[in-house]
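Entry 14. Structure prediction run on the chain below.
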Amino acid sequence: MKKLSARRRHPMAALVVLLLALACTGGLYAAFAPASKAQADETAQSLAIDEGKKLYAVGCASCHGTGGQGGSDGPSLVGVGAAAVDFQVSTGRMPAATSQGVQVPQKKNIYTQAEIDQLAAYIASFGAGPNVPTEAQYGPEGADIAKGGDLFRTNCAQCHNFTGKGGALTRGKYAPSLEDVDPKHIYEAMQTGPQNMPSFPDTTLSEQNKKDIIAYLDAVNSSDSESPGGLELGGLGPVSEGLFGWIFGLGGLIAVAVWVAARTAKAKKS
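Output returned:
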């Protein structure tokens, strides 16, 4: 009887074994189970920021400061957001040339889209700002072209011309042409207000308003568009068209009047 009692298991032994088995199973699962989507996204974002920091140190820090605080040669980047970075770098405006004049022009882009995304991720970490828009935000689906035309003529035509051909501003500055501009970049420009342009946040122009304006510009600048008024003279607006009318229209009338007067004088002499 004593031997049987000695071999009898402790009442808690089974529970201890079960807990150890569960702990081992949980540990193995945590070690080998695939990471969740949120964890994967967070890891990818962290890697993008690290790579963007390296690119920033080489191409941006000399003007904008090591922490984006700005300097004598460049403004602060705190709070500009990823959209501003994507617009400025994708269009080649940044990095700026050492002597670009009164306005930074568009030029050939020197970064890949992956590198631009990394730069945008790093600069966005300085402070919250507008995000890069998705295709659903600037694409033609659900856009109202007529409404976009009204909005463009009210808010944009004073500088960009009523069909987006661009125009001159004061002191050598200019509003660039919007022909053949990527719809994403037009949306980003409205979001962030680059250089001389004011910004149009969603409180001023809603996401739908921006979509409508982009659809209007695509309609008036596409190769299939037709001018309902006839010869558009390059779509440069009423000033150029009025000047054309004065020079050729009025000039033609004067020429006809001179010709008639000369013919009349000859007829009287004969």
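The longest strand covers residues 167-168.
Filed with the rest of this week's runs.
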